[in-house]
Amino acid sequence: MKNLAESLGLRRKPYRILTLDGGGVRGILSVVWVERLEHYLRGPVHAHVDLIAGTSIGAVMGCAFAMGMDASELRRIWADSAAVAFAKPASLADHGRRWANRVGLAAKYDGAGLEAMLRSIFGDRCMCDLNRPVLAMSYDLQTMQVHVFSSEREDHLQLPVWEVCRASAAAPLFFDAHSMVVDETGAKHPLADGGLTANNPVVLAISEALREQPSRKGIPVEDVVVASFGTGAPPEGQHQVPRTIFGHGSAILQALITGATASDHVTARTMLPSHNYWRFQSAISERLAEMDNVDHIDDLQALAHAYLQDGADHRLAQLARRMRGLPIEPGWLERLTQRETA
């Protein structure tokens, strides 16, 4: 009966999770891929998911989707606004900050551009105004623990969305930590980029779905379907030995983010059946690996489209079927199983 129901498209929809990695300007990769997913979903992604989780730029994108924005609009906004968040030096003070950054004495950007961009996107909206449940990852430098913002937590409902995203995107060496109140104690905590521990928020998102809550029971693991979008996997190895404190710091930061992203991906593959976990991630050249070079956005979009042509487009079509509660096409389950065991 189950197979008959699935063949007729009568199977109930799974619990659908969208996860979005951090990666600065490289977030445009995820936006392009989600835009293509929306083509197959025949509508905006927020209408087809039950939970969105994001880190850094992934948190920004996730909150924008949850607000009701579609991927086409977000792609245009990010392509135009990235230069505001990662502004090139325009004054003596900016050049002084860059020099201090090279020797490890200051963040590369003062944060004003990032905050202006976030305020322009989210205005005065609070977490309670989002149309879908959202998790945004950050890292509490005071408690030295990951901090998860949730639009379903009572003490997070009135937090401004722009401020949550500012905290999630406070990448060390690029931006100063963001100080804000995060709970009922009223004390401010210094928060840094969630990529320090959960650049790929997929494991936390799955755990959230499986956890029983007052508002609902935990979701059976076989009913959880994850659409997970990366921002490019940089090349392995360091081609040049860094000559400054900033250079060593950047290498360490990249190693932390890349390592955490890979381990969470492996964990998610073991938690879910192969047809329930869909990861989209492309190799990226060393030239395009920088997280703050806005001059690379067009090249990154070209890379995203090349990845689609290399087979990802067909996988997005099957993912859309799973998200709509339809069976994937014949032969695809075998392909996914082979991919998982390869």
TrEMBL record:
Motif position, DGA/G: 193-195
Sequence motif GXSXG, residues: 54-58
N-terminal signal peptide: none
InterPro entries: Acyl_Trfase/lysoPLipase, PNPLA_dom, Teg/CotR/CapV-like
Keywords noted in UniProt: Hydrolase, Lipid degradation, Lipid metabolism
Motif extent (GXGXXG): 22-27
Gene Ontology MF term list: hydrolase activity
Keyword Cytoplasm assigned: no
Active site (UniProt): S56, D193
Gene Ontology BP terms: lipid catabolic process
Residues covered by the PNPLA domain: 18-206
TM spans (from-to): none
Name of the protein described by the UniProt record: PNPLA domain-containing protein
Organism: Imhoffiella purpurea
